[in-house]
């Protein structure tokens, strides 16, 4: 395995992600921020944060597959959410869970969540970018 995820002693044990990613593969893969577009460039889940998060994660999985990897290879995620407030956390987690169920994974690499004022298209509520290490 090219990426080992751990929650070391002395740091909070967070269920949604791991604190540390140890990468040993030979190929770095940088996935551009994925938004809730389908393959035709149509926004999925207009106004629905959970649906858009799900689509973003599915798009990240598609990009990873094109690079010869999967979510097991993700070393770091960055999630940008428009007008973030903690009240949006259940919708974010719901979208991640729905994508995880479709993909048969448990995506828990280290992640950074950033609240942003806007994204490239007004209908987009979230953007997810990934860094992966693939052998």
UniProtKB/TrEMBL annotation:
Gene3D superfamilies: RutC-like. InterPro entries: RutC-like_sf, YjgF/YER057c/UK114. GO terms for cellular component: cytosol. It holds the Pfam family Ribonuc_L-PSP. SUPFAM superfamilies: YjgF-like (SSF55298). GO terms for molecular function: deaminase activity. Belongs to the RutC family. This is RidA family protein. It comes from Microbispora catharanthi.
